[in-house]
Amino acid sequence: MTELKGAWQKTGIETSTTIQTLESTVSSLRARIHFLESGSQAQSDSFADMESRLQEAIRSAEISKQKLVKEESLRRILFNQVQELKGNIRVMCRVRPIFNSEESQVAKLKYPDTDKESKELEILGKEEKSSLGNVTRKAHSFSFDRVFAPESTNEEVFGEISQLVQSATDGYNVCIFCYGQTGSGKTHTMSSSDGMIPRATHQIYETATNLQEKGWTYTMEGSFVEVYNEEIHDLLGNSKDFDKKKHEVRHDEQKKQTIVTGLRSVSLDSPNAVESILKQADANRSVAATKSNERSSRSHSVFMLKLVGRNSVTNETSEGTLNLVDLAGSERLKQSGAEGDRMKETQNINKSLSCLGDVIGALGQGKDGGHIPYRNSKLTYLLQYSLGGNSKTLMFVMASPLEAHLSETLTSLKFATKVHNTHIGTAKKSTKVRERSSDA
User: Fold this and answer.
1) How many CA atoms lie within 13 A of 168 on its CB side?
2) What's the rounded mean pLDDT across residues 6-35?
3) Is 114 part of any known ligand binding site?
4) 290 is known to lie in a ligand binding site
5) Annotated binding-site residue? 12
6) Could you report the per-residue pLDDT of 124-169, keeping only the tens digit for each?
7) What's the start-to-end Cα distance of the chain, in Å?
């Protein structure tokens, strides 16, 4: 696969260089023709030869450009075939970094793989005393598509998912979401200044720029919502209107796309535009202090990026979406110390996460036409097409490294294992070829 990728890159570079050289030749020849037409007999005699060479250079440049476009189409096909082989729903685990004040509270975690790309995690459970007085600790082993230890950085994490983000520019629906208990590092991974959301959008801008020479132009629109107490709020709207404005989830069965009514959509023409809406969304998101975390997210947030591409050479269009989801943390009511409004929030959070588990469990049964309980929560209904087979989906299970959080960590990892064993079918990309205009 590495050799194939290298061959693509080498061919693409060589073809691009050829096009640049030929375009330079065309420019030079045009200048010389202009000079030759100035009146000299000798110049006139060589005009026909120069014109012939000019036309040949133009034809060669066009052939090279067509070759480059065909190579890009082949790259897209082969690239997404490789992604399918890796699995349409993938699960990765990240153990959050350890703070200096926590070094004496760390649980016993092991990473059995010796390979650079670790895929296994082993956790020793709490001490248990047998009837004979013997103290034992049960070892729990887990295996995922990738395991990131506490010392891993957001750059390393994104390096592993960047290829999945690429699929969105190729016309696929892509969904990446973080799951885990409160304080396990979900928001740091997704929405921090160097998190997955800003990194993903930066990569998409770079890809769109690089594809311009192959005839592609892209437009991007972003929206940001939260699911709070089974209600949808527009995080790019006015927070004062949250209780007044109702948003409904609707699905386009034909296009396999989700629409949220009354949602503000922002044109994203630069990375700065993304940073701006991230700040606005963060300011509007529902957070509160609990015993589990000083600033606990009380809602699930979903960043939705729509990418529409058009190729002026092949007349092809593509439409992909990238959904980046930061799930609210699961909490046990006793541990969170939730009361009143906080208790209601916690109950709704746990209910929607439970519904997510039910949906994935139903999908895992693999029964065509069987009932999938998407409507049991706003979260699962919103993510219906991200979970139900028309999307490339990646789940990050976030784990706390602390001994005090062992029970919740094990619960999260067992749920992630359930997801990892689920097959949701093959994603389909949204592309079509437009009719060319007959105007000459």
Assistant:
1) 27
2) 71
3) no
4) no
5) no
6) 887 777 777 777 788 899 999 899 999 899 999 999 888 888 888 8
7) 44
The number of residues making up the chain comes to 440
Closest CA to 392 of 80, 75, 77: 80
Structure tokens at 413: 């990892």
Annotated ligand binding at 183? The verdict is: yes
* Dist CA 233 CA 245 (whole Å): 8
181 annotated as belonging to a binding site for a ligand: yes
Class of residue 264 by CB neighbours under 10 A (exposed 0-12, middle 13-18, buried 19+): middle
pTM of the model: 0.73
Is 187 labelled a binding residue? yes
58-96: b (≥16 Cβ within 10 Å) or e: eebbeebbeebbeebeebbeebbeebeeebbbbbbbbbb
Partners of residue 223 on adjacent β-strands: 304
Name which of 263, 353, 307 is nearest 174 in CA terms. 307
- The predicted-structure confidence for 396-435, as pLDDT tens digits, reads as follows 999 999 888 888 899 889 989 988 887 766 666 666 655 5
To the question of whether residue 422 is assigned a binding role by annotation, the answer is no
Q: Is the separation of the CB atoms in 302 and 308 below 8 Å?
A: no
185 is in an annotated binding site: yes
Separation CA 413–CA 399 (nearest Å): 8
Range 339-344, long-range pairs (CB < 8 A, 24+ positions): 342/288, 342/290, 342/298, 344/229
Structure token pair of residue 149: 């230890």
